[in-house]
User: What shape does this take?
Amino acid sequence: MRTLLLLGLAGTFATSGDLLLASAVRSSNPLSFILGLALNLVGIISYSQTLALESTGIATAIFLGLNIAIVTIGSVFFFNERLSLGQIGGLITVVIGLTMIEVLT
Assistant: This one.
């Protein structure tokens, strides 16, 4: 449970950082850029803590899968990006894969 919590925190910070970095690039806002980098750093530090608790492959798969899914969903809400049916299917596949990794390990 501790591993999942750390990965959730890592994913949340890294995702927030990614969204802020995207916003900074689109608006040329240096504060968003600095904040995005700081949040990404906190996310990576949280992720590194999980490596003591979980195998590298599993921790990385969960961290990156969460990050990809949440950043994609965030970009739909914050930047009004549209997803194709194939992209939606891919996200659903990622979520199913993450669930299987967590349940089966």
